[in-house]
Amino acid sequence: MIKQKGNIMDLEADVTYNGLCCYCGTCGAFCKEYITYENEIPVTKKKCYEIYGACYDFCPRTSFAPFVVERAVFGATRTDNLLGYYKGDILTARATDEVIRGKAQDGGVVSALLVSLLEQGEIDAAVVSKTSETWEPEPFVATKKEDVLAAAGSKYTQCPSVLGVGDAFEQGYKRVALVGLPCHIQGMRKVQLSTGFDVGADRVKILIGLFCTETFDMHMLRKKLEELGTRIEEVEKFNIKKGSFFVYTKGGKEIKTPIRKMRDCAREACNYCYDFAAEFADVSVGSIGSELGWSTVITRSEAGAEIVKKAEKEGVIEAKKLTEEQLKELKSLASFKKRENLKNIYDKTEPIRILNMQVEPEMLVGFLDDE
Fold this sequence. Notes:
Layout: H1 8-16, H2 26-29, E1 35-38, E2 41-44, H3 54-58, H4 66-74, E3 91-95, H5 98-103, H6 109-119, E4 125-131, E5 137-142, H7 145-150, H8 162-170, E6 176-180, H9 182-193, E7 204-210, H10 218-227, E8 235-241, E9 244-249, E10 254-258, E11 283-286, E12 295-299, H11 302-313, E13 317-321, H12 324-348, E14 352-354, E15 357-359, H13 364-368
Parallel strand pairs: 4-6, 6-7, 7-11
Antiparallel strand pairs: 1-2, 3-12, 3-13, 4-5, 8-9, 9-10, 11-12, 14-15
């Protein structure tokens, strides 16, 4: 039997102590009186006596029903098992503003969309991830172009971004955008669709998801950079392209290493995530599939499709259809993540009891197939 609800003690037992916490910030975003974070895991600030808590209900790692979420958010379920539900063509795009492109990770599409939405009053705040000089990420509430540009670029380390949504609500913002990794998007969708707790999540108007294979543990990343001949304090930018991890330093040095050699830096919880393309966002964006200086864009919801279409029409971005070869590259990486991590998920999952039968999850297919 699968437990549907629990409290913070259940959250610690089922998620934190089980190595599943993705440090998305969802559990603490709306319960700051009781939950804080130490060493990138949630801890209780004081005893909570609730039988059922929002922390457990909102956490994307206690449970997540992908097809239920798709029907609720998109009105339909996927026909593409690798990339999830989406509308229309998958695009490759870039910002037309050279200032944005100069600050951005790739094509600057996310920054361009946020700046446009803020300047047109479609949103009054955007929750993004911003890093310190030592690349320690923290959620940041952006309200103008300068804020968005200050937070531009991929971090590759985990940030409890959903905490920023709680901050934005406390600051009185009513039309909020969230930019996050697949785990952040899943957490926010659970908040929006919760029937047990209402925190005013309808104030989050748009979710922009970022492609993600994994994030790096900060301690392990520091050690790896030292092995590569630099320090995190010297890093200007990270990037992943064509199977390689790139480090660009403030001194102008480029360091390249095969991405497979970065695997030992990955956070443990990332090994149990099957979502590469931020499948439950309104718009998903990443570099995979696009040429250098461009971003791949997947529109999923009506709101997401409208935002991208309007941005293209008004010249905020330029876009074209992803070629079949580029799409093949995108699907290949999505497939790799699902194949590899589903093995980990099977290993972690306890046997499932169906009536009087107990069976391993990976063996269920044996009872369903004719062959």
